[in-house]
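step: validate -> pass
step: tokenize input -> pass
step: predict -> running
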Amino acid sequence: MKYFLVFILTLCTGTVSADDFVEWVGANSGVNWSAGQIQAEGAGVGRANAPPSTARLMACRAAVIDAQRNLLESIQGVRVEGATVVAQMMIESDIIKTSVDGLLRGARVVKREPQDDGSCLVQMTAPLDGKFAKDVYQKTLPASQTSLWVPTIIPQTHDRDMQQLLGQLLGQGIALLVPSAQAADVSGPAWQASMDRLTTRISALEALISTHPAVIAVSNAGPTGLVLDARGSNFIPSMTPKIRQLRAGVLYPNNKHRTERRKRGQLVSLFTRDLDTARRHPVVGDRPIVMKALRTYGDTRTEIVLGTEASSNLQALINKGFLSDSGVIIVL
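step: predict -> pass
step: emit ->
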């Protein structure tokens, strides 16, 4: 089941909303977990003997370099998974180090303010989503070793038209999904070609199902995103937060969620301080469902536990395809 949602982070305006959750890493740098970006300020001065116009340009250029230095401090302090931060991943992985360099080179100047005394102040931001998130999630959200299971993309329904459609798909499509001539071959180029064809056929089935009137009716009636109220707990944000069942395993992100978010470079969750702001955020769509966190799990404080009823409700929604491409906001 597909829920319409465009995962767009808050536009960088150079200002921070009072509801934004900003984790300050240094005196002039931090992580805006509500906008999904790092931010930093920089200051610079020109040469004392330079002409005023030249000195102003030199001052702003120096301010950009200072802001980039502070951005590096911000990104190195980003919490990735548990107690792991980006600085640790940079030591262990050249891919992450290269990704951080690219992030800094692509940073945007959102405010540039020459001062009367000849100095210059600059504010810069860089998004955590996109290529950087893809590279980080490639390390922290590895691909599942389990095979694709067709019913996970097909919602349960008692609608007669839908039952007829599913009957046609299951009666005619299963033989197409796994080519019998190559099903036993699980290695080498033949296996890769078979998997490529499998992916194409599943995508075609998803497209066919998503346009069926019965599916559209069901998806329009369901929630479009999740708001998780973690206020009162000691939860702290990270790039890979987890939602757990009480005395059980992880509900979100599951293997499918991990694959989708890694593929898109889409952040697992955003964070904010205000419940009403979270409800209105485009990340969770027009009809978000709100659930209350019970407590945190473990010592890292980056995993949230739901109560029994909330866990059951969320699991039932996930079984129908919820959160496959809809967003999550956690209120702190």
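step: describe -> The chain has three domains: 22-140, 150-219, 220-331.
step: cleanup -> pass
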